[in-house]
Specification:
With 68 residues, this protein is mainly alpha-helical. The protein has three helices and no strands.
């Protein structure tokens, strides 16, 4: 599962950088590359969101590791 954690974390970091670009420069890199709300960009946004939701479980696993 560690590879999935690392992959999810990498995808979420890339998504965070995209949101940083949107917030500072009003530039959406995903929309620029794949089209504004095209089916491919929607899939990418969905994957980033699902990875973010999955990483919520990381909080519980980190807490369990520190309790041991």
């Amino acid at each position: 599962m560690k590879w999935f954690d690392n992959t999810s974390l990498t995808i979420v970091i890339i998504g965070a950088v995209n949101w940083l670009l949107v917030g500072i420069f009003r530039f959406d890199l995903v929309a620029y590359i794949f089209g504004n709300l095209s089916w491919l960009s929607r899939i990418i946004y969905t994957i980033v969101g699902l990875c973010g939701l999955y990483l919520i479980s990381l909080f519980g696993r980190i807490g369990n590791m520190s309790d041991s």
